[in-house]
Amino acid sequence: MNALLTYAKLLKFLCHFSGAEALKLTLLRAASRLLLLQPLFLGLLLAHACAFSLGFGHDVYAFREVGHAFVSLFRLLLGDVDLAPLLQTNPYLALFLCLSLALSVYLALTSMFLAILSETYVRVRTAREHRDTPASLGALRDYASVKGEVALVAYQDLKYGIGWLRNVYRL
């Protein structure tokens, strides 16, 4: 919980920078879709907790009940569980269940997480580009004069002129 609050404070501080504003917008817009991953993760973890509890509940104390197995599997994902008792009890089942949990969480859920974030970032970036680009040549000159970018004005004037000539040529 402390880490979550620290990240929230960090994002609040970094919002004064333009690059971090895109990160903030991306996380805010992706929050609803990322929350849909939580039941999937919890269901996956609960299914594996039931399997670990059934397979190792009588022999390994950490997996004696489904609730304890749930906590132990969460700790296993963080790398905090000793696998030696599992391997001594039933090595084949332990390898199968640990690999299936690790592959499903680290490959499937992480790829979904990254796909949601990257798609949202692309949407935020294109929305910011459309918002930031001036609609007319006069607005572009005003924008560039405020920014002090003479080269940008010359380039955009040239680009506008060539585009206008292409439209006239098509008529």
Key descriptive features of the protein:
171 residues, mainly alpha, 84% helix
Would you kindly provide a written description of the structure presented here, covering whatever features stand out?
It is a single chain. This protein is mainly α and 171 residues long. The chain contains 8 helices and no strands. α2 packs across α6.
What series of H and E elements makes up the topology? Answer: HHHHHHHH
Radius of gyration: 27 Å
N-to-C span: 63 Å
* Poorly predicted residue ranges: none
Number of helices: 8
Beta-strand residue fraction: under 5%
Largest β-sheet summary: none
Number of strands: 0
Give the overall shape, derived from the CA principal axes.
Answer: elongated
Overall pLDDT, averaged?
79
| Helical content class | over 70%
List the helices and strands and how they pair.
Elements: H1 2-14, H2 18-35, H3 37-56, H4 66-78, H5 84-89, H6 91-132, H7 137-147, H8 150-170
Quick overview:
With 171 residues, this protein is an all-alpha fold. The chain contains 8 helices and no strands.
